[in-house]
Amino acid sequence: MNNSVTLGLQNKIVKTKDRISNFYKKIQEQKGYLDKLLILRNQYTNEIERLEYMIEGYYKLSKIDFERCPSCLKVIKSEKDKCSLCGNEDIQLETEEILAFKYEKRKLKMKLTKLLSYIEEEEKNLFDIEKANEKTIEALTEYEEELHHLQKGYVNPIIEQVEQLNYEIGALNKEIYNLKKTIGLLIS
Question: Which residues contact 69 (CB under 8 A, 6 or more apart)?
């Protein structure tokens, strides 16, 4: 058996196991990063919905003339230039405020679009890392099978020497036994 071949395979196996361990770490880090990106996506989506409700609510509610309180159903005394519900004197949102809400919504939608494409790229990166890990695991399996195949037919030369010495010791012990037997016959 060629020791340099088996040592080389054992080194490859150790290095490959290290690479697999590193891949697992990268995969976990990438999944954690993707989770954070998904949370950010949800925050953007919620903020866009909130702005849409504010804009839509302003237009819809400003058209309603409340005669009764929607909470307690008491008759509302409306005063000119005041909100009929809360009594606030500034009852008209300025056009600039509505435009600011719309601008903020548009800006968030652009950020969301960029974030979604970035999430796709990061998911592809995760997929690539997982594929590389699978190929490394396949290589490890091949190295281990090759090493097992090399070691399967191997008989250690030291074991052969020990067996040979045991055989010789047995032959010498038999010869000693025969000599003692012969000496015993001569003495008697």
Answer: 76, 85
The string of pLDDT tens digits covering residues 9-51 is: 899 999 999 999 999 999 999 999 999 999 999 999 999 999 9
Closest by CA to 88, choosing from 63, 62, 68, 54, is 62
Closest C-alpha to 65, from 83, 53, 81: 83
Helices (H), the chain: 3-62, 95-152, 157-187
Q: Which amino acid is at 10?
A: Q
Which pairs from 91-96 meet CB under 8 Å and 24+ separation?
Answer: 92/62, 93/58
**Residue 161 near residue 52 (C-beta atoms within 8 A):** no
8 A C-beta contact, residue 1 and residue 154? yes
Angle at 178 between CA 177 and CA 183, to 5 degrees: 100
Report the half-sphere exposure of 33 (CA within 13 A, side-chain side): 15
Tokens 């196996």 correspond to what residue? 13
Collapse the DSSP code of 68 into the 3-class scheme (helix H, G, I; strand E, B; otherwise coil) and give the result.
strand
The predicted-structure confidence for 96-120, as pLDDT tens digits, reads as follows 888 899 999 999 999 999 999 999 9
SS3 75: strand
Rg of the Cα trace of the chain?
43
Joined tokens for residue 45 = 């989506």
Q: Are 34 and 119 in contact (CB under 8 A)?
A: yes
